[in-house]
Structures are given as C-alpha cells and as structure tokens.
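Q: Hi! Curious about what Quinol oxidase subunit 2 looks like structurally. Here's the sequence.
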Amino acid sequence: MKKSKVLLVSLTSIMAVLLLSGCENNMVVFNPEGPIARQITELINFSIALMLLVTVVVFGLFGFIVWKYRERKDNMDYEPPEEHGSTVLEIIWTVIPILIIIALTIPTVKTIYAIDEIPKGYEDQEPLVIHVTSADWKWIFSYPEQGIETVNYVNIPEDRPIDFKLTSAGTMQSFWIPALAGQKYTMAKAETQLYLVADNPGSYVGKNTNFNGQGYAGMEFEVLSQTQKDFDQWVQDVKETAPKMTLEEYEKMLEPSHLGRKTFSNTHLEWVDHSDPHSKNYTNPEMYDRGHGWPGKIFEDKDNYKNKDGNNSESINHKESENEDSHGGDHSGH
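A: Let's find out. The predicted structure is below.
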C-alpha cells in the first residue's frame, strides 16, 4: 500500500513538472500585455478555477461513494431495499448544473461586451484607426489618417487605444494577437471591429487562426509597439522614403501567395474598400492548387475585379473547356 502511494505521488509530481515546463514559454494568453488581453485572461482563469472546483468535488464524491459502499466481508449478503427515487436529490442535481452555467455565463457576457469597447481609462484618448485587410496569405494594414500602408507588420503607439477595422479581400480569416487581444473574423464585404491597447513598447506575434488553404500556417505578422515619439518618426520616415503603390501592384498582391514585409506611402483605400457590400470580389480561384490534379469547377463571377472589360467570363469558360478536354471529359465525381 505504501509503495502504491509513493508511486502515485511520484507520477503526479512528474506530470506537474512536465506540464508547467511546457507552459513556460508558449502560453502567451497567460502573459497579457494590455487591458483587453487581461480581461480575457481573467475570464479564462475564472473558468479554469470553477471547472477545477467542479472536478475536485465530483471525483471526491465518486471516490467517497466507491469506498463507503464497497463490498466487504460483513455485507456480502446485504441487499439494499428498493427505492423509488428522491425528489430532493433530483432537484439538487438539476439545480447545481444550472447554477454552474449561470456562474460561467455572467462573467463571459460581461467580458464580451467590455472588450468590444475602448478599455476603461482610455475613453478620453482619440484611438488610432487602422484598416486591416486579409488576403491569401498576407495581412495588409492601412493607416487612413497617416496615408501609409504596410504588409505583414503593423506599428502602433504604446498606451493608446487602437481601433482595428477588419475586412477581407477574399476568403474568411481570423485576426488574433494573443498578447494584446482576442480574435475577430475578417469577411469580404463586411467589417468587424477590434480595440486593443499595448501597455509597453515591444514586439508581439499576430496570426490567422482560421484555416484557409495551403498557406494558412505561414500567415503571421508582427505588431511593434513604440513610444508615441518613435511612432511619429516612423510615420514621417515612411512618407518620405517609401514608394507609392499602384493599383496593378495591389491587385497582384491580392493573388494567393506569401509575401515579405512591404511599406507604401499611400493606401489601397483610394481604389477599393473591401468592407463595402457593393465592392468587387477580389478572388482568384483558378490560382489555387488543390493538390489532386483536377482544378475543380470555376464559376462565373460577374462581380470579380477582373471583369473590367466584360471579357473575363468568356476567358474563364474557355479555360474550363480546355481543362475538361485535357482531363478526359466531365469529372462530376470530384
């Protein structure tokens, strides 16, 4: 019996050490660097504590009942009397789960509404507006007030609210900066909003958490928090040294691909706002490699940005005809 207890304690200690060592560097959500992230972390910690309490109580009662009502030599022939249930017990084990759900729901709803507003203490500051456009597989950041644009990195001033206005040029993605805020989806012809504040200067990783094809895993960006002075100097440097982007360059950039960092002294907002319900569709389905040798069906899209001269549908139909001929006719089974 003693050996079993020693073995159990040893195994528990080893598992705890392994789990804690694994969390040291990777659990970014438990090291928040801003008020929005802190509210999310507090909710996570509360949920974990409540679930641990429930788990301890349930397993404690389970162990107690198994031990108390185990078979012993003095009750081998004991047969308990027939019972028809207990109304009191049934009410208790129905009410308890309801109370647990309520205990989780109230702080969750409060947090959801709280993080959709400018954090407390920053209401009097004018937020910096940054338009975020996702595309396969890159992130585009437009600063309308400053008239500049970056790709795959975004600079922000510390201790100032940031108002991210999120949309997508094509497929749906999920915008997430674990150390600073929660995640929000980006969708074409729609706009979502995300507020955050960075407490201190530093570099933080942002990523896409919504699977959207082969390039999904590499769709990351850097968030660089700077002092207001350094941020203003960076903006001035970009205006003076960065090249201007053309419409042709922007449309090429939206094609499915991975890009490095890019910086421009103008924004694509002068040509297109992807959150506008009446904007063109900036998708290129014929450029995706599906990995099984068959390009798939490409449907005519009258709102596609390539339909500038009305000839795009004809070229697409011609390409489909060539694909069908080269693959031996109709492949409706794919």
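A: A fun detail: The chain is about 35% helix and 20% strand.
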